[in-house]
Design goal:
- The structure is a single chain.
- The chain is mainly α.
- The protein has one domain: Amino acid/polyamine transporter I (Up-down Bundle), CATH 1.20.1740.10.
- Strands 1-2 form a two-stranded antiparallel sheet.
- Helix 3 packs antiparallel against helix 12 and helix 14 crosses helix 15.
- It is globular.
Length: 449
């Protein structure tokens, strides 16, 4: 493999992989789902499931990627030649394409809000923030312009390559994300009434946790780490042979959990301090927080910091979705990376137009009682993600050669054989069954209440 197509260091890989995992799931979805499911109890269950389910899956994708040295589609061909396992990589490519087509729409909203906040156009006294959000998402020109600019940023970064594009951007954006979070948390904890929100988030109350909440935490544990769509297979294929995959996966997992906790440490004290409900749902970011910040001293400044933070996380996550597409079509060396990246970006923008217009001119177009945006989100998150996770678990547990797994598992570290045995047992027996249960419950096929 050419040097320019590799990470320059273990740190670069960890930051890029962490950036892929840290996105909408950690900063947007986790706080409102935790708010709707008991706060502290949800947090504890989420952490436990992330280590028992999410981490083993992440290690598995790392093993497949570096063990083959290939991107998502070719990796399965390399490890299981003359078989149909390549479908796992193809599902990952299709899932990433669909995911990015509506993810870029949300990224465009965040981008627009961030720019407007910088110029003081978001917070206004007595404003109807729900109406303001509806006007932005409902305007076809504003929504599509934001989507186009967001995709353009991704294209520019990826044309620069792995080391000079994704890795360099992640090295700047991830540290800034943590710095911004610390500033915001310090400000949040100085508010009157903030401690009530802090205790809601950190003090487990098991009586508040329902079966729904338990399964939401379980689903969040593997969705939050970007596993299931083979983006981590592609990322790990660029990693040198001397690095420890379990250690790297552990660091990525801890960073993802840390960001989820930081999001809660900021959002819940702020929401409680101003008498808002913690179970606000998806409107938390674009409607509730601007209303809250409008009541704070220097509210515009702190809202701007939060929106920039969220934009950074959204970008680093979207880089990996576009990279799996670019890698799949440049692996044979017959097409230039720059041309494929621009082509992929253009197609994704066109594919994302219906989702971008779902809150406006296409709001009346529904299927299964969902608009185009929500339906795409549902299909990817609730169908393709778990199917991808299940197939990866089955590939590891029943198909991939164990000598290759052991070799890659122990490269660069001196972990005891017991750790390998625990990981393999989880992947062969526990993880597949867990995924099937979550999948069937999410689809309404089984009822555990």
């Amino acid at each position: 493999m050419k040097n320019e197509n590799q990470w320059s260091s273990k740190l670069g890989f960890i930051l890029a992989a962490s950036g892929s995992a840290i996105g909408l799931g950690a900063i947007w979805k986790f706080p409102y789902v935790a708010g709707m499911n008991g706060g502290g109890a949800f947090l504890v269950i989420f952490i436990v499931f992330t280590f028992l389910i999410g981490l083993p899956l992440l290690i598995s994708e790392f093993l497949i990627g570096r063990g083959s040295g290939k991107e998502a589609v070719s990796a399965y061909d390399m490890l299981a030649p003359k078989s149909n396992w390549r479908v796992v990589g193809r599902i990952g490519v299709v899932s990433s394409f669909l995911l990015l087509s509506f993810y870029a729409v949300v990224g465009g909203w965040v981008l627009i809000y961030a720019v407007m906040s910088v110029f003081g156009f978001v917070i206004k006294g007595g404003a109807d923030y729900e109406a303001a959000f509806s006007s932005i998402t409902g305007s076809p020109w504003i929504a599509l312009f934001g989507t186009a600019v967001f995709i353009l940023i991704n294209v520019i970064v990826l044309t620069l390559g792995i080391k000079n594009g994704i890795e360099r951007a992640s090295k700047y954006l991830l540290p800034l994300l943590f710095v911004f979070f610390i500033i915001l948390i310090i400000r949040a904890l100085t508010l009157d009434g903030a401690m009530e929100g802090l205790w809601f988030f950190l003090k487990p109350d098991i009586t508040q946790l329902t079966t729904d909440g338990l399964l939401f935490a379980l689903g969040q544990s593997f969705f939050a780490l970007s596993v299931g769509v083979s983006v981590m297979v592609t990322y790990s294929s660029y990693l040198g042979k001397n690095e420890s995959l379990p250690t790297s996966a552990g660091v990525v997992t801890i960073m993802n959990i840390a960001v989820s906790i930081l999001a809660g440490l900021f959002i819940f004290p702020v929401v409680f301090a101003f008498g808002m409900e913690p179970a606000q749902g998806p409107s938390l970011l674009f409607v509730v927080l601007p209303a809250v910040f409008s009541q704070m001293a220097f509210g515009e400044l702190f809202l701007t910091l939060f929106l920039l933070l969220f934009l950074f996380a959204t970008l680093t996550s979207s880089f990996s979705m576009l990279e799996i597409l670019v890698a799949a079509f440049t692996t044979d060396g017959k097409r230039s990376r720059k041309k494929v990246t621009w082509t992929a970006g253009s197609i994704i923008f066109l594919a994302g137009i219906p989702a971008g217009l779902s809150s406006g001119v296409l709001s009346g177009v529904t299927l299964f009682d969902k608009n185009i945006f929500d339906l795409t989100d549902y299909v990817v998150s609730n169908v393709m993600f778990p199917i991808g996770c299940l197939l990866i678990a089955l590939f590891i547990g029943f198909k991939m050669e164990r000598p290759i797994m052991k070799q890659e598992f122990f490269r660069g570290n001196k972990l005891a054989l017991a750790w390998y045995s625990i990981w393999w047992a989880l992947m062969r027996y526990i993880v597949p069954v867990t995924i099937v249960i979550v999948f069937l419950y999410t689809l309404g096929i089984i009822n555990l209440n």
